[in-house]
Amino acid sequence: MSEAKQAARPQQEPVVVNVSGLTERGARSSFSDYLLKVWDARSFVFHEARTSVQGEGREMILGHLWLILNPILDGILYYALFALILQLDKGIDNFVAYLLIGIFMYRMSARCVTNAAKSYVKDNKLVDAAGLPPVVVPIVSNLRVWLSGLPGYLVLVLLIVLIPPVEEFTALAFGALLIVPLQMFMNLGMSLLAAHWVGIIPDLDNLLRIAMRAWMFGSGVMFEISRIENLGPAFEFISYWNPLRWVLELTRDLLIYATWPPADGWIVLGLWGLIPTLLGAFLIWHRGGRYRKDRASVD
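Structure tokens predicted for Teichoic acid transport system permease protein (299 residues):
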């Protein structure tokens, strides 16, 4: 009887499931898909960076004013040292504006790189919980520094206008607005590379801090870059491809000397914004999310 019932039952056809769009859990996506995921997370990145900036300085009496006061105090200190004591201001027109541009722009780049370098060493549970690409971590750190330092650009312009000798801005001064995104992408590329290597070897953070100080003295922040170039052909070559040197020169040409900078500086900055950013993102993508494991093994 049972055999007859089984024979009477209709045969079920096999179900075909299309698995072409499925990926293995934890498998690495292609680099192009990875970049698309980063782009899709742009709202989260901006929200997280903005929220962090709003929470900074709440424990201090002056709060966010320190974001403006710190570079001003640094400028006063370096002016006293390099202009009054060492007298390195000779031959530099409007040394006060020259120095302020150097200090403000350098601090922006240095803070972006050093803060992002430690981003994988710190705890980032929110990014992990959201399932976002690991490269988002240093991007958030970089954007946080940039947002917190954004008022510094306005303060810089006001100081150049108000502190004698007063500079009269021309239409060329608006060209400085082009330098801001170029510096931002330059900072991002260097930050991604720093975050990658410090995330693997945390000890490199100490060497990075020394490198940042050397970068300051080698970029013409407080004196003319010709002092570095005159040391020899090797120094001249390194100085030419130093992106911070061009950030400072382009800004000074537009805001102080009312001249349009040469094309060399724009090209070097563009290359430093594109190549390190793609290279840093590629290295972080290739390594996946293994920075945490490295930190745990070091601890």
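Residues 78 and 222 are 8 Å apart (CA to CA).
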